Amino acid sequence: MNRRDRIRAVVLCAGLLSLSSVAAADTIVLKNGRRISAMSVVEEGDKVKYLTSAGELSLPKSIVDHIEKGGAVAGAPGSDAANLAIAPPETQPSGGGASGEIERAAVHDGSIDREYIARLESEARSGTEQATFRAAIGRHAASLFEFSKGDLDHALSDERTALIYAPSEPALLMGVAYIYLKRSEYKQALDYLERAKRFAPDNPDIPKLAGWAYYGLSKMDQAVAEWKRALALKPDRELQAALEKAQRDKSEEENYKENESSHFTLKYSGAAEPALARDVLRSLEMHFSTIESALNYSPPDSIGVILYTQDAFADITRAPGWAGALNDGRIRVPVQGLASVDQELSRVLKHELTHSFIQQKTHGHAPTWVQEGLAQWMEGQRSGENAAALAQIYTDGHAVSLSRLESSWMGLSGDGARYAYAWALANIEYIVETDGMGDIERILDRIGAGMATEAAVKEVLHSDYNDLMQSTAEYLRKTYGR
After folding, report:
1. How much is the pTM?
2. CB 140 within 8 A of CB 175
């Protein structure tokens, strides 16, 4: 079997088999508290055996506390602090039954009744407390509806307008803060939460959301303090899980050194050289300018970066063996043994930084294939040696649809991940090489406005997923064919 056929065999096997393993991982929980995500965990004698992308591994049963079957692998690449399991706060303003009546009149039959809301706002000009409250509820109802549709821009606009009519209403203040959090705009969220705290000091949702904002800003001390306060006010299972994650980060980073630049806050283990930390920041700032220009976007807040030893990276991120770095709102990179930024580390930094841009530009709505395809493109990867195999798989009718590559890939095997990355890159490469980066920018803008990805692709490219896959296969044959 020649090299091209071997590539095709790996990709075909991944496409047909490995994608079925998404979110099907088991978790081995050790007695020291460490959790290991793996496939096909079995107990044999005094051993616990499990499969990873590196092959079959085993552990002594004596160090295993228990095995959790069928869980998802945590920490998807390109995910963000907005993907923490934080539910929306209770945003029912005061007013009881009157609020419900206004909300039903403002949104009905699957749409917003803007004429009704306009009448409420006209009545609010009378200046009576009841009239202004009714106008606030009308706008709030519109915001909730738009948020449910993924339209964060209009949801934010309506919720902020509601606050004009009821500036001291905690539910509305928290509503604005929550939308900012979903947009990864953490400093803005904190401004509104501080205001909400003045009017409702004992509301547990306020420190819950504040902790989320501080987590997104890489301020672990404040995140832990806020979440502990929220739990003291009200028990909360999802918040307990978030707190434990933040405490792991805080414990690991307590003795880390810090550095910063215009757009980054960096923490690094004492095992890393200060010169390496400075070099990383220089490299990141250079990549920031390149990506900013390509996507016509600049993230509003400083981006957190953590440099780990290899062991600390594995323990903290719990990423699968094939993940060489991780971006969960902070860029996490193992740098053990390096004294400066080499070509490989520079490539990894640019890849992960691209995730930060995409995540914030789309408010966390970009699917994995867009995230990973564009991150590879920006770092300089091209389809090259995988092109012929991918094109042939499409011709044979075995290509996996882009719709199946939208969700997390963290449950994939190593071969499955290679297939997914190759196909994602190929589609992004086709789009950029055909009509330029402007089309990518327009697709991301539409995704950020709440449009489904396939609908965004169709509006910009006039092609659905099937058309895009066919065009990509034809591009690969024409560009890289024999």
Report:
1. 0.67
2. yes
